[in-house]
Amino acid sequence: xxxxxxxxxxxxxxxxxxxxxxxxxxxxxxxxxxxxxxxxxxxxxxxxxxxxxxxxxxxxxxxxxxxxxxxxxxxxxxxxxxxxxxxxxxxxxxxxxxxxxxxxxxxxxxxxxxxxxxxxxxxxxxxxxxxxxxxxxxxxxxxxxxxxxxxxxxxxxxxxxxxxxxxxxxxxxxxxxxxxxxxxxxxxxxxxxxxxxxxxxxxxxxxxxxxxxxxxxxxxxxxxxxxxxxxxxxxxxxxxxxxxxxxxxxxxxxxxxxxxxxxxxxxxxxxxxxxxxxxxxxxxxxxxxxxxxxxxxxxxxxxxx
Length: 305
Fold this sequence. Notes:
305 residues, 46% helix, alpha+beta, 12 helices, two-stranded antiparallel ribbon
């Protein structure tokens, strides 16, 4: 395998056109230059790309294991190698978007997720990269896309439900699954509605009739969150988009790293901590539990029904 099999010009252009912190850009440049010089590092990463992205001979879990092994052997940061692997795959992923008629704009909007995951890694681990390489499986398989504030993909319901309106959901029915990336963009009414409209238009052909079902499974939708969220909270408004059809408490807040950068209470806050983080920390530090909520709503392309 040769250097030209890695499109360095594309990768550096992608890094520059996205708002990565300067220190992370320097970290990416360091490891990319190292790949040019180190035959072992380059050959392993290219083999992983070929076996995972093209021939589908291995799963993302295999990639994660091999990158951890490689990082240990070469004394490199595994999180930095994780994001480097993704960067190496990006030119080929863009070609897939173009071949499938998805377009460059959707590709660049979707893959801005790398900025969010890198920021999370800086926040939680104190270094550039990502500790969620498995998250990119759905991106590489062209199943998950970004539409403004939210990322969405099609899923199927695992059981039957009847909504308050009487609308019946059957096991196996399709729905648009909503993810809320850590972009820092407030969940305002206009921002949420724009994302819902765009996702509806993109996935509409998968639904019979004019109605599409949206759903989200998140700690943000746990009903008891209403006890500490102020009435003006955008998070509360986001919750109110959904009819919560299932919820349960957690013994430990498994998403704490997303909000606080750490896994165990009592959670420490800084002046830059969000109002959500401050309210949530007060709730948890007072002995209350968090939980998970699964909510749904019907959408007709213009409004929530």
